[in-house]
Amino acid sequence: MSFSKWIGAGLGWSFGGPIGAIIGLVLGSIIDSVSDSGTPLLGDWQTKQKNQPTYRRQAQPQTQPGDFEVSLLILASVVIKADGHQDQRELDFVRQQFVNMYGQERANKAFKLFKGINQQQIPVRQVCMQIQQMMDHASRLQLLHFLFGIAKADGMVTDPEVNQIHTISGYMGISSRDFESIKAMFYDSSDNAYKILEITKEATTDEIKAAYRKMAKKYHPDRVIHLGEAHQKGAVEKFRQVQEAYEKLQKERRF
Fold first, then answer.
1. CA–CA dist 72, 8 (Å, integer)
2. What averages of pLDDT result for each successive group of 10 residues across the chain (255 residues)?
3. Which of 14, 76, 192, 255 is 20 to 30 A removed from 140 (C-alpha atoms)?
4. CB neighbours (10 Å) of residue 253?
5. 3-state DSSP call for residue 34?
6. pTM value?
7. Are 26 and 116 in contact (CB under 8 A)?
8. Which domains are assigned to the chain?
């Protein structure tokens, strides 16, 4: 399958708005002029773009895997450059995550797209507003979790990276409580279990149990089943961390 057919097959709403503009520029710069059928590589993508309504005119659809992947690549580029330099470990993390999710061949195509995105100036606010408008809440939380994983790929999450992810989170319409919950999954401190469950140390046993039920439902892998099996792996990790936070408090509180 040619590069344009791969990317065109998976994308929906991102063909409108700022995300569509970014992808158009990247595909236009990729030197790969002939597809498997002998036609220009951009042909399939351009045809679909012309037939696709702009994102501003659409009601919110169910997030498609291709839309999630492109949003992830664009925001990953923003986070990697947040502290003023690109660490090779962060780039390797992005590549390895795609290998784990999609296999080597598809990961190579995704990373090729990522390198093109990484050379552009990203209009962060506009991109995130499009994601907020078109992507369901569970998928946006999954994006946030992945971005923190990238930031920590070099061993630590720097303040510029945290600030950038916080800005992205706000633009995507994610609450501060959800942001702090996911952020706590990447730090080791005595109160992380409370933060993950979105409660304080003053919470009663009944409040801890109620918080666990709420968070287990919010982060359950089935919430992103529409993104496909590949993206459920990340959701399973979030769900596991909620369970571990609850079990830690069970031991501490002896209930």
1. 16
2. 48 65 71 40 39 47 73 90 76 78 79 83 92 91 91 81 95 96 89 94 95 94 84 85 95 91
3. 192
4. 11
5. strand
6. 0.79
7. yes
8. 3-174 (no CATH), 188-255 (1.10.287.110)
